[in-house]
Amino acid sequence: MEKNTFMAGAAKGDITPSKKLMPMPLIWGIQFTKVVDPVFVRVLAMSDGERQGLFIMFEMTLVPYAKETLDFIVKHTRLPKENIFMAATHTHGVTPVHLGIYKEKSRAERKCRAWYKQIRATLLAAIREARANMVPAKYGYGTGKSYVNVNRDAVFGEKSRLGSNFERPSDKTVRMVRIEGMDGKTIALIVNYACHAVVMNGCLVGWTTRLTGDLPGRTSAKIEAQMDGVVVFWCSGAAGDQNPRIMAQYTGIREKGKPVLKNLGKATYTILEYLSDEHVRDVLKANQTIECTKTDGKLYGAERIAMVEAKEKGAQKVPYTLRLFMLGDIAFEGISAEIVTSIGKAVRDVSPYENTILVSHAMGYQGYVADDWEYEHDAFEVGNSKAAKGAAQREFVKEFTELFQEQEAQKM
């Protein structure tokens, strides 16, 4: 082992809306009336002896009020913002406080701000606990496979619609980092996988549904229950075109070649239990490939704003936050969007590091980033993308190439 300069500690805090806030709004008058799974914010605090860093994961659709939250963390920790990496699991099973879809001063908007106040208090407590828990540590990287996802760009004639397409690209790789104390006890698992957290999306009873961390939350909770004291940081890879292979709405059923939209109702709870059990087995199998031998754990953080040509002619360029966060020889590429499989591969491929993890929904949100095929087939992701065809991939590749060049230069 290298000389031990690395320290780490982890904590999590329950950010489930309090009972007095329920029911919580969703969209179109739909409300969350009950809780299937509590949701959490998880914090990993690290130090290399010179620098400190935070890796934070929200069990939410997106990082809530990302800039405000980052400023809040910087104020209370006095860490450089580049040393703080935030992302969300992208569960669709919580109130989307970040989108600003509720009318100003409406009851729904007031509930969102009240919940955000609760989230910030819990986040700060978790940061303090994680930092207090820091001990000399070691870490390692490993991979495995999980087959719970499927490409969701189903072809109907010359167009694509949401569904299940087992012929289109789908990244089955589970990318993992394990951090453990010098006594061999696991402190944290970082689990990266490309899948929308939407098993329960569309599981409605009338105008009501239930709050849940969905596949990432259920998977993390099960592993944490099996591995006493561990905190699991499930983060989304290039999942813009990836759904669970079974879910409440799209089940693979087709009529006259067209995907059929279903509401499987209560059966979806069984599906979530089944898929999360499968995913847990896959994650734990991947965990067995990891050997924790690294103890230097040099931390590095840097950020670029990629200005991308807009899809709408004449519109201003779209700013995407790109974040490079290094733990020794492990690179985390964060993007403030949900990107599709082919673009995820292109961005990972510019990394000079074999162990590279791409994290979507990081540091904010600027919608989908679709690839050329999806533009040519008028896919769902295109309608929710702000970028012109091909423009985002070009800029992301360029900017991450320069970020890595700057990082390499600093090592000289």
Write up this protein:
- The chain is of the alpha+beta class.
- It has a domain at 299-411.
- It is 27% helix and 33% strand.
- The protein is built from eight helices and 22 strands.
- The chain has helices at 66-77, 107-132, 214-226, 267-287, 341-349, 372-376, 380-383, 391-411, and strands spanning 7-14, 24-25, 31-35, 40-47, 52-58, 84-88, 135-145, 149-156, 159-165, 173-181, 186-193, 208-211, 231-236, 242-244, 250-255, 258-261, 299-308, 318-327, 330-335, 338-339, 355-359, 368-369.
- The strands form six sheets. Strands 6-5-4-1-7-10-11-13 form an eight-stranded mixed β-sheet.
- A hairpin with a 2-residue loop joins strand 15 and strand 16.
- The longest helix is centred in the first third of the chain and has 26 residues, at 107-132.
- The mean pLDDT is 93.
Relevant terms:
alpha+beta; single chain; four-stranded mixed beta sheet; 8 helices; eight-stranded mixed beta sheet; 412 residues; 33% strand; 27% helix
Helix content: 25-40%
Shape: globular
Number of helices: 8
Radius of gyration, CA atoms, in whole angstroms: 20 Å
Distance between the termini: 22 Å
Classify the beta-strand content into a percent band. 25-35%
Strand order of the largest sheet: 6-5-4-1-7-10-11-13
Tell me the major beta sheet. Answer: 8 strands, mixed
Q: Catalogue the unreliable spans.
A: none
Q: Helix/strand-derived class? A: alpha+beta
Kindly state the mean pLDDT as a whole number? 93
The helix/strand order is EEEEEHEHEEEEEEHEEEEHEEEEHEEHHH
Number of strands: 22
